[in-house]
Amino acid sequence: MGDFWVFGYGSLMWRPGFAHVETRRARLMGFRRALCIRSWVHRGTEQRPGLVLGLDRGGSCVGLAFRVPGDLRDEVLAYLRERELVTSVYLERQLAIRLDKGERVEAVCYIADRNHHQYAGNLDAVHAAEIVTGAVGQSGRNEDYVASTVEHLKALGIRDHWLEEVARLVGT
Predict the structure, then answer these.
(1) Counting CB atoms within 10 angstroms of each CB, which of 56, 58, 101, 160 has the fewest?
(2) Which of the residues 75, 82, 84, 103 is marked catalytic?
(3) Can you point out the beta strands (E) in the chain?
(4) Range of the domain at 112
(5) Its domain of life (predicted)?
């Protein structure tokens, strides 16, 4: 099989963790970056969940696409499945994305499973900030996760006004 693309919208953008031969800015239509996944381990607990990113229906999302050599397909997909599908809150899909120069390609994407018990729903910025504030998990404070995500996105020249508003409301 030939090369394939992987779409990153969160930590995959700055910490992909897999070999690739090209990185391009890309847009996924029909899904948006959202704090829509309840975190019970890394950024919260079951008693006091935090929120982490997922791709949820509606709008569009600017992220990065990584071109992976076809001979690494099995290795990279195994890595991504171990990383992204631990609790099955994400669904692996092949979706069309548009690369920065207009080309349309299919990419492996991990979208939020709206039927999973960790799916938090379509939250407004105020409600998301209330959940994030004070949540702490094994990887640290949820506020730090949001602040770090916004900083990384800005460093890549990607604006996410909704997430920036959440960060402002939690005081980061």
Answers:
(1) 101
(2) 84
(3) 4-8, 22-39, 50-68, 90-99, 104-112, 136-137, 140-141
(4) 4-122
(5) Bacteria
Whether residue 62 is contained in a domain is answered as yes
CA distance 92 to 160: 23
The string of pLDDT tens digits covering residues 93-126 is: 999 999 999 999 999 999 999 999 999 999 999 9
| Backbone conformation region of residue 70, classed left if phi is above 0, alpha if psi is from -120 to 50, else beta | alpha
Nearest to 30 by CA among 86, 87, 107, 84: 107
Q: Is residue 146 part of a domain?
A: no
Domain count, the chain: 1
pLDDT digits (tens, 9 = 90+) for 4-17: 999 999 999 999 99
Is residue 84 annotated as a catalytic residue, yes or no? yes
Does 159 reside within a domain? no
97's CB contacts (< 8 A; 6+ apart) are 5, 7, 26, 27, 28, 65, 104, 105, 106, 107, 109
Residue 142: phi and psi, rounded to 5, are: -65, -35
The CATH number covering residue 28 comes to 3.10.490.10
